[in-house]
Amino acid sequence: MPLSESVVSPRYGRVRWRRFAIVMVPAALVAAVLIALTAKGAVAASFAVSGQQFTVTANSLNGTGFEQYGSTYKQTNGKEQPVAVSVIRNATLSNLCQSVKVLGLTLRITAGSGSTPVTASNLVVGATDLSGNATFHNISVGQDASTLNQAGETGQAGTFGQQASSVSITNVRQLAWSTTAGTFRLPGFHLQVGGAPC
């Protein structure tokens, strides 16, 4: 075959590492800073709440690393809802029940009713009502919310906060706007549409 008619195959799989690093290193640094700031509570890791509260009950809640402070949640319509934010680094709940009205029907979730309780890490609950029989260990009441250090979250500087090394609550009942957790393990999980609320 004459040289002029030879076919030159394109080369695949080459990465220009220098250009790749120029693009990726700043992006990775920004991501690392945002993750660190979020973990320290400097950047709010929030979302718009639905505008519907739900009920959560449990026979008992036991946790280590407890914090509580005031905050607000924003709904999609722009309305802000004041809440008490409760943060527990590690929590166990027995006989957990959660219910909410959806399109006129009750959506009910139960878990942890057997010998294995529900467990959660970095549990954050925004609620307007919480009741039960509570015991706190090494509690500090009236602390500036920005200086809380038991569960890795902080509130706004100059606002009321409280924290304890551990908390135990029996006959838990709360009216909540949101619940988030790093991990949430629900043994015996059961979801039911219809039926009685918690």
Describe the structure.
- With 198 residues, this protein is mostly beta strands.
- It has 2 domains: 28 residues; 140 residues, no CATH class.
- The chain is built from 1 helix and 9 strands.
- Strands 1, 2, 3, 4, 5, 6, 7, 8 and 9 form a 9-stranded antiparallel β-sheet that branches.
- Strand 3 and strand 4 form a beta hairpin.
- The longest helix has 24 residues.
- 23% of the residues are buried.
- The N terminus is likely disordered.
Q: What is the gist of this entry?
A:
The protein is mainly beta and 198 residues long. The longest helix is centred in the N-terminal third of the chain and has 24 residues, at 17-40.
